[in-house]
Fold each of these.
Amino acid sequence: TDELTGLPNRRRLIAELETFTKSEGALLLLDLNKFKPVNDTCGHEVGNEVLQQVALRFGRSLPTGAILSRLGGDEFGVLINGDYQTTLEAAYALQATVSYPFHCRGLEITIGVSIGHVQNDGTGNLLERADAAMYEAKRSGVGVVQVSQP
């Protein structure tokens, strides 16, 4: 368990991923945009509060049964059951949850998120493919990049 957010950690996500590969669903990898300047200018205490608030917002927007984890730093992962459209809608819902400012210690903080969405299509390497999709989302600035569209 991640000590800061109380979410499952990277190890738990990877363990769940082994059984998840037999399910219909998707792996989402999320990386916060403009988070480093929050730590640099406002301090790590504020950064930690923002991460806790992000975890709460993400958790509230996901359907029951989805596994939200903090992978470390400002990266999160989600295992979500459902067909392509359902899991893609969840990715856009997660993006929307960080579209409005966070309020910490009298400060208004605006960040974003880049999301890699990979539907479990039986070809394996979900983590690697989701990571590549997330970095493409970050590089291109589009927010959500999908891989393995049916």
Note: The mean pLDDT is 91.
Amino acid sequence: DKARSEKVKLCIFTPNLAGGGAERIAVNLANYYTKKGIETTLMAIRGDGPYKSQIDVEVNFVDLGVSRVRYSLGRIYKELMAQQPTHVLSALRGSSVVLGVALFFNRKPKLIFQEANTMDAITRLSPLKKTRSVLKYRLAYLRANKIIANSPDTKNDLETLKITHHKKITVIPNPVIPNNYQCLADESIKDDWINDANL
């Protein structure tokens, strides 16, 4: 069938490479899928940050060079139309909203949003701010083809706040492991507290 025979061309989208957990996952995934033979682009709104040096040379890295996320809609749309990916994976909630708005009227590519946190912060907002936030996410997430939640609690929040339909959500607890995981595990621990008998 035509859909199954379609060659996957992946774009992983992140706001920056500034050192957060989701940004690390974005780089790890880009490196992983590239090594699996999938044509992969890592696109950043701002391409600065310590993780930039960890991007595999075979990954197509695109730095949009935009200072503010809200100014990036046009650049994102133009670059995605030039790259023509079949699938776009968003690494963070904020970038998912931007992608959902930028591609709201464009049914290609398929959008996958990663949800790495529960929505406790939203539920603690004042009623007006909570309503605005929920409506914003509902609108943007209408465009998502799939949403990956990092835990059952995150999935439950998405369903309870009616941000998206439960059939769109898949729980995947762990990201891919970096290629150097064994070296990292074998490193000796030199911190004094590890040998403190009083702990």
Note: Strands lie at 9-14, 39-44, 60-63, 87-90, 110-115, 146-149, 169-171.
Amino acid sequence: MVQVAIGLYGLQKWFGGDFAPVVDLAHRADEAGVDQVSLTDHVVMGENLDKYPYGRFPSGLDFPWFEPLTVLAAIAGATRRIRLSTGVLIAPLRPAVLLAKQLATLDVMSRGRVTIGLGLGWQKEEYDASGVPWEGRYTRLEEQIRVCKLLWSEAPASFKGSTVSFERIHAWPRPVQKGGVPIWLGLAPSERNIERIAELGDGWIPMEKNPDLLAGHIGRLRHAFVARGRDPQGLAVRVVLGAVFRADGTPDLEATLAAVPALVAAGVTMVEVLPLVFCRGPQEFDAFCQRLVAVKREVAT
């Protein structure tokens, strides 16, 4: 059965800029049966927004990007079932051993409900400000994931890479989930990235929304899973639905959700929708969540 997620992007606008009430929205989504909440990451913003590779950047320079792992920790304490994710956390901006500790701690505090989305971001300025080299970021991401998996399973642990090295260190706590926190990678579907996802990831978070194109990419990913002795049916794919608007410019939720069956047929396992686009305020949020949950049953039949 397809799962549904909500993106928490921008919901502070409903509360005069206060993001704390969003924790209650996550609780309400949990009670409604939504499967996952997701939050986008930026540590800082550079001024070259025209470099955004996916069209017009949706926010201005003064938009508040709340640190995702901090927010998800607060949500963990207010929820019981809903899974906690990012779309995506810019992993190389965090030291590898710290990232492993943060994710393990969040998994313990949520009793095993973390499914982390990791990626690279698109701004060199963000790396520069964080004191992290832009060059070699793919290698840094690979080594971070290897370090996380190592520290979640062995002690003492030793690692020697080009971006991180250590000898006989001990890292506790470990994630509650057997095998560690599931890692979904938000990478473009190049041949090399297909290999990265199949080798290091449990899922994929594509920017692509076209079912026909996605079917081809997902087929390649599943083939890469098989080549590594992994079950291709275990591949998870989360897609943010592209909003459909009426002629008068208002968002059409039903027309947007109409894309779900084709996406599921292409191999998508989770769809994410942004409440900020479709709800005029928190008073419409519960009905919005109930409609998303109903889509799961409709697609299943």
Note: The first helix runs from residue 22 to 32.
Amino acid sequence: MTIKANLLRNLVLPIGDFVFGQEMITRLKFLENAQYWPLEKIQAKQAEDLRNLIQIAYAEVPFYQSMMDKAEVRPEEINDPADLSKLPIVTKDMLREGYPKLTTRYTGQKTYEASTSGSTGKNFYVMEDAMTAGWYRASFMLSLEWAGWQIGEPHLQTGMTLDRSLDRRIKDWFLGCHYKSAYQLDDEHLDEILITIRKHNLRHLWGYPGSLYYLAKFADTLGWDHPLSSVVSWGDSLYPHYRQLIESVFQTKVFDTYGCAEGFQIAAQCEYGNYHLHALDTVVEILDAYEKPVKPGKIGNIVVTRLHPGPMPLIRYVVGDLGVPSKQRGCPCGRGLPMMEAIKGRDADVITTPSGNRLIVHFFTGILEHFPEIDSFQVVQTEPDSILLRIQPKGEITDSILDKIKTSLADKGTSDLQVNFQFVESIPMPPSGKHRFVINQTHSNEDSHV
């Protein structure tokens, strides 16, 4: 461990945890040890935390008390993950209906509202506090360690949170993060990213698969010869041809991670390429259409129970993604954490602008999730110079709001696209049965997944 990493882990970040009340480093150190526990010990701890969660949710959150009473299930009947099947599945719409009065609880900490739509195109709000953030940040940092990164090691991250608040700027400085836009993926901005990597001799690269893929594609045209130590991806599907090109150009492995902006990490790849579940943070069920567990190797709906209650407990929560449970038992890496085979649920196309910018699904969700009047959306490109934004309204959408949406999109990257609007009662479901919220129907989209 470097001197900088040692100071950050044992002095600077613990002080920050005390100030902000999140205990991230304490949690990270626990996970670093517990990840190597035998599976049976992990499962025992998981069951213990689950019992505590259920007790708190029933006693303090009206939504869950009502749900359990209707199901005629007492808290003491939920003793381990297998007992969760006694409870109903919880959807975003169910939580929306009672939010925040019926779905949140007092934790003693200052709370804040986080909006999210991920790659689903449907806005959703959750309540968080510092302790909740500390839990999921610790799990994410553990995943980064699996990729070979050390705390404080300089890296470049592409993302959507360009307005870096004071705490984010402090975090970036201490952790050595060079933060770049994932909104702008035209050649000029991709070149700026590569210049930053070379100038600072960065060896770790993080971001959405789409942004990493286009960066690798552009770097390949330049004859890139600066090998990286690792690339970490998150947020949407890491297609095989994405992985192949990124690994070839940057001469390293891609470590894919899977989490939800609702406040938890679900899984991440270890050095052997296996997806390990963060079983000390969550209980993950992969269920068929009849809410029964699917067999290993079969695809099903991912349902998550976050073990940390936080201000807004999430129990048997449908995240909207598809996954495949693993047939494999045990991993050469030595971690006792259970595994899943694959994540199958975050497919989306890429919108290409006339100027050459590439707009991935998170370009749109990162903007439209801040408009509470929008329930769901879908973006369709049928012509090279225009897009149709289908909106399922949640409230009244005035001409003024439409103008604000257009301005927000244009400021981030659609200035050379005509944006047309269409109000719909629901977002159309394709024959595949999987919602797609960004669809490119033009012949110019070489990387479309239509």
Note: Residues 378 and 437 are 4 Å apart (CA to CA).
